[in-house]
Structures are given as C-alpha cells and as structure tokens.
Amino acid sequence: MTKRSRNIIIMLLISNLLVAIYALVITETLNTCKNDFRTITKDYYTDKTLFIRDHMYKIMKDYNLSNIEAMKICSAVYDYAELFELQKYTGKYDAKELVLSIIAHESGFKSDALGSAGEIGLMQIMPSTAEMVARLLAKTDYDLYNIRDNIEIGMLYFKFKLLESRDVEQALAKYNAGRHFMNYISYSNKVINIYKYLRKES
User: Can you name the CATH fold of 68-200?
Assistant: First the structure.
C-alpha cells in the first residue's frame, strides 16, 4: 500500500468519525430539546388541568353551568392570563381567580348576559371598549357573546387598568366604571369577597 493510499484511507476514517460524532451530537441535542419541550408542555398542561379541575365544578354548581361551558371559561381564563402575564400585575391576588371573580360579579358566568347600558357577555364589555381593544389585538372578527373572544378582550382591558392604576382595587373599579369613578370601594369589595370565596372553596 502506497503512502498516498494510506493517507486517503486515514482521511476517510477521520471523515467518517467526524460525521458519526456530528450525528451523535445532533441526535443528543434533538433529544434534549424534545425532553425540554415535553417537560414544558407537561408542566403547562398539568397546571392548566389542575386549574380547570379545581374551579369548573365549583362554578358549575354555584352558577348552574354545563360542564362544557365551565370548562371553556376556565380554559380561556387560564390561557389568556398566561398570554398576557397578568400575574405580574395582581400582586398578592391570583390573577386567574381574580378574573373568575370579575366574571362571577359581572355576569354570573352567563355568556349571553346583556347589561342595561349595553355591556355584553361574560365580562360585560361595552362594544366601544371591545372595538378599541380588538384593534390592539389586530382582531377584526370577534363576537362578544363568544366565550374566548369576550374573555380575551376583557382580560386585556383589565390588564390596561392594572397598568394604569398599579393597584388591584382601583383597577377593578376602573374596569367597572371607566376612568372617571366616584367610589371604587363597593365594587372592588364585592369582587374581592367573591375571590375569597372561590379560594376558600377551591
């Protein structure tokens, strides 16, 4: 075997070894990513499942909802609380349970609720407010009687009030009465009392 042939064989062996090492690294990286994704996904869905389980039967019983309605409401509240990172702005209050408390007070969990001033749906949103928030969400097709649409728009609007007030009680009042409110104590107290009840019973 000539020296040139030996060098070619050595180069081929080294090349094959490098390919094998590269393939091993890629495989290990992909496996790590898959495991990380599974962990994140598992944690997310475990937390969501627990939240739904802990609250849907309570609101079904107290507000005469079907299991499908209760599940849709709890699922939407969980999803949009995570998406809008609402917990950052509610301090000692659990953001998701606080939103459930708003819904309980505003509409009694009735997705077809219509207020005396034209407020619509679960979170009793004025059409003009919905139009403003929907523009920010780049939503052109929405229905305030739809559970997910109403909760998405209502929760983002509530987040604006939290950012504006930096105080949960005032944010609740502004959510209810807009920027100009005379006395926020009564409305806020009612929502907070429902919140305490939900936490006690869940």
Answer: Lysozyme (1.10.530)
